[in-house]
TrEMBL record:
Residues 7-114 form the RWD domain. It comes from the Eukaryota. Coiled coil: none annotated. This is RWD domain-containing protein 3. InterPro entries: RWD_dom, RWDD3, UBQ-conjugating_enzyme/RWD. Its main location: cytoplasm. The lineage of its organism: Eukaryota, Metazoa, Chordata, Craniata, Vertebrata. The keyword Signal does not apply. Keywords: Cytoplasm, Nucleus. Gene3D superfamilies: Ubiquitin Conjugating Enzyme (3.10.110.10).
Length: 200
């Protein structure tokens, strides 16, 4: 990791020194550093919205953009994704210099404005960021195992909606046991026939 990034991490640890405000989640010479900052920003109603910002500084940071995740119980998935996109857009303006503290200050000052744009629908450019981003978050593989599916079509629609909301790409695979409803019908049919024989 470059010396400016090391200095920035030390400064951030000193700035966010309150209880649970700062935590290094992982540190690696090959993958870089991942850390979490807990902060607050003014929301739509004027009340403070707690934000958990997770930053991944790659080894060649600040020559490349950091990875950013935004989490809050007070924001929807769509709002969190928009905040992340706005932070990444702001980071593009600060490329090649330490930027994390600037990004935290920026979101503290602009969260209400971003949420207001979403509410009023004036943030029409919100969908344009995803196509123009060149952040390499690495390849993530996630397996979602659904057991005892009763309504396959409904489950598929739900999973596709989640993937769309989270801007994920991937495939749905159905493996192993045949449709459980077919098994249940054949077993019930067998028992019914056995009961009919006993009654005859």
């Amino acid at each position: 990791m470059a010396e400016p990034a090391r200095e920035e991490l030390s400064a951030l640890a000193a700035i966010f020194c309150g209880p649970d405000q700062w935590e290094v989640l992982s540190r690696s010479e090959t993958d870089g550093t991942v850390f979490r900052i807990l902060t607050k920003a003014e929301g739509l109603t004027g009340a403070d919205v707690p934000l958990e910002l997770v930053f991944h500084l790659p080894v060649n940071y600040p020559s490349c953009l950091p990875g950013i995740s935004v989490h809050s119980k007070h924001l929807t998935r769509a709002q969190s994704m928009t905040v992340k996109e706005k932070l990444l857009k702001q980071a593009e303006n600060l490329l090649s210099e330490p930027m994390i503290h600037e990004l935290v200050l920026w979101i503290q000052q602009n969260l209400r404005h971003i949420l207001n744009q979403l509410e009023t629908g004036s943030g029409s450019e919100k969908c344009t960021f995803a196509t123009g981003m060149t952040v390499d978050d690495g390849l993530w593989i996630t397996l979602l195992h659904l057991d005892h599916m009763r309504a396959k079509t409904k489950y598929v629609k739900t999973v596709e909606k989640w993937a769309s909301d989270l801007k994920l790409t991937g495939r749905l695979m159905f493996m192993g046991v045949p449709d459980s409803s077919e098994n249940l019908q054949s077993r019930c049919g067998l028992k019914w026939k056995e009961m009919q024989r006993e009654n005859d």
